[in-house]
Amino acid sequence: MHNVKIYSTPTCHFCQMTKEFFKENNVSYEEFNVAADQDRRKEMMEKSGQLGVPVILVDDQVVVGFNKPRLSRFLGLGDNTLKTA
Predict the structure, then answer these.
(1) pLDDT, position 78
(2) Is pTM beyond 0.85 here?
(3) Distances 40 to 51, 64, 80 between C-alpha atoms, Å
(4) What's the burial of 72, exposed, middle or buried (CB within 10 Å: 0-12/13-18/19+)?
(5) In Å, how far are 40, 61, 62, 83 from 48, measured between CA atoms?
(6) Rounded distance, CA 56 to CA 26, Å?
(7) What distance in Å separates the CA atoms of residue 71 and residue 68, rounded to the nearest whole number?
């Protein structure tokens, strides 16, 4: 099982898409609201060099934004997650 963390904000559309992707693929994750938690915002910036969200950590890999192919690769998900609707 992977250690997955997402730094997000409540109003971020791509954050919601990422969390829906996790749910569809039964991926457990820990979520940090960087709009409300300045310490987590600072941590996110130190890890990614970015202020934009989402920032996702899969084990020690950093993914900035909702990048489905990268997330799938890091999570070891099959090709079925890469198909478009």
Answers:
(1) 75
(2) yes
(3) 11, 15, 33
(4) middle
(5) 12, 10, 7, 28
(6) 16
(7) 5
Side chain identity at 13, as an amino acid letter?
Answer: H
Q: In this predicted model, what pLDDT tens digit does every residue of 3-24 receive, in sequence order?
A: 999 999 999 999 999 999 999 9
From residue 61, alpha-carbon distances to 47, 56, 74, 75 in Å are: 10, 8, 8, 10
Structure tokens, 54 = 């989402």
Q: Where are the domains of the chain?
A: 4-82
Q: Which residues pair with 30 in a beta bridge?
A: 5
Q: Which CATH number fits domain 4-82: 3.40.30.10, 3.10.150.10, 3.30.70.920, 3.40.640.10?
A: 3.40.30.10
Secondary structure letter of residue 42 according to DSSP: H
DSSP 3-state of 22: helix
